[in-house]
Structures are given as C-alpha cells and as structure tokens.
C-alpha cells in the first residue's frame, strides 16, 4: 500500500507547480522562453515571495530549498550568490531545475529526497527556504524538526504555508461541500481531498507558532493573493480583510 507521500509524489511527477499548459501555452518545454514565462507568471501572481526571501541579502550563504519545483526561486538564490542545495520529492522537479541551471550557467546540489529525513548534517545551512511545499507532506512537523536540526545557530527558515480560514479555501468549500449538499464537510477535509495533491493541509497562525516553537524567533504574516480574490468583483477587493488571505508567510530564526 502506498504512503501519502507516494501519492503526493505521483501527482507532482506530472509536472512541477507553475508549469502547466495554461501558463506555458505552446512554448517549447525547458527552453529559455519557457522558463522566462514560468518565472514571469510566478512573480506576477506571488510578488510577496521577494519580500519574504530577500534573495540578495543572502549572498555567500549556504541555502537549502525544500521543493525546488521548476527552479524559479532556486535560480534567484543562485543569482544572489548563494551556495545552492535543493531537495524535491519528484524527479520531474529535479530534472527541470537541473536543466534550468545548466541553461543559465549556475550550479546546485540537487537531490530527489523526502525532506522528512533531510540528508545533511546538523547545523549545516544558513537559510532553509520552502514556498508552499511542506503542507503537502504526510508529516509536516517532521520536516520542520529536520529544518531546525540542519540550520546553524542564528540560521533562518523562510517560506510559506497555506492558511485554512481564507477566501481561497472558502471558495473550494462552496464548490465541493455547500453546493453539493454536504455543508458538514470541514475546510480541512475539502483541502485534503480537492486542493492540488491529496493530503494538502492548511493552518492558522497559532498552529504555525506551535509547529515552530523550537525556534528562538518566529514571525507569521498573512498575505492576500490573487487566488483569494479570483472570481470576486474587483470593486469588492479593497473590502476583504488581509486576515482572509490564504498565504502564511513565515520567518523563523533558530
């Protein structure tokens, strides 16, 4: 019987996040134009990535990215002068990121590996980065514990988890629960079964604080996203509280 992580891997082996034909169209896969399109759309939709990562502040540091995907953020770390290491559950992501780095003339130590057991020694990294990945794992708490282990004293985790009580999740609940005559289904249940790969989880800030309690400093900011605002009239957008956003932007210092 396959584990949840096996099912998650099978889903994402179909293609790294942000590379579907709705984004890339008919552009030749793995070409420079293809990668540039993936990057353009990613940062148009999620501009807060730059504010959380602050790539250029970490030149010369040793960086681990958990979930390299199409290598978009990974390339920003390399461009900033970081020593890059990357893990991903899927070979598709490792191959895509390796192709991107070769095309752009950078190097990274890339490994297909489950981050619930990070294959690096204690106190090895200055920064661990993971954007919208860990909540797909069978045991996110185990990954966070591993992140704490491999960070140097004073090292930082930077990244994002999904927020459960958000407009984006509410819309999924309407679609899969309320409009199907099953209003008793919880947001968590809808997320698990219908939000990207099976087993997707989302959290609230106090749950994140508990997960990162071993860290000396912790900050959690809520970000409103285009995924929250999509399908709502534009005139309504300014009236939605920031707290209804679906991204929890995390900065945690060991």
Report on this model:
This protein is α/β, with parallel strands linked by helices and 254 residues long. The chain has a single domain, classed as Vaccinia Virus protein VP39 (Rossmann fold, 3-Layer(aba) Sandwich), CATH 3.40.50. It has 11 helices and 7 strands. The protein has helices at residues 4-12, 21-24, 32-45, 48-53, 72-79, 91-104, 140-150, 167-176, 187-194, 205-211, 226-229, and strands at 62-66, 83-88, 109-112, 125-131, 151-162, 217-223, 247-253. A 7-stranded mixed β-sheet has the order 3-2-1-4-5-7-6, sandwiched between helices. Strand 4 (125-131), helix 7 (140-150) and strand 5 form a beta-alpha-beta unit. Helix 8 (167-176) crosses helix 9. The longest helix is centred in the first third of the chain and has 14 residues, at 32-45. The N and C termini lie far apart (37 Å).
Quick rundown:
Helix content is 37%, strand content 19%. The protein is of the alpha/beta class. Helix 7 links the parallel strand 4 and strand 5 (151-162).
**CATH fold type:** Rossmann fold
Q: How many beta-strand segments?
A: 7
Spatially, the strands of the biggest sheet line up as: 3-2-1-4-5-7-6
Question: Roughly what is the average pLDDT, rounded to an integer?
Answer: 97
Task: Please give the share of residues in helix.
Answer: 25-40%
Instruction: Identify low-pLDDT runs.
Output: none
The CATH class turns out to be Alpha Beta
What structural class do you assign from the helix and strand content? alpha/beta
Number of helices in the DSSP assignment: 11
Biggest sheet, open or closed, and with what strands and sense? 7 strands, mixed
Helix-strand sequence: HHHHEHEHEEHEHHHEHE
Terminal CA distance: 37 Å
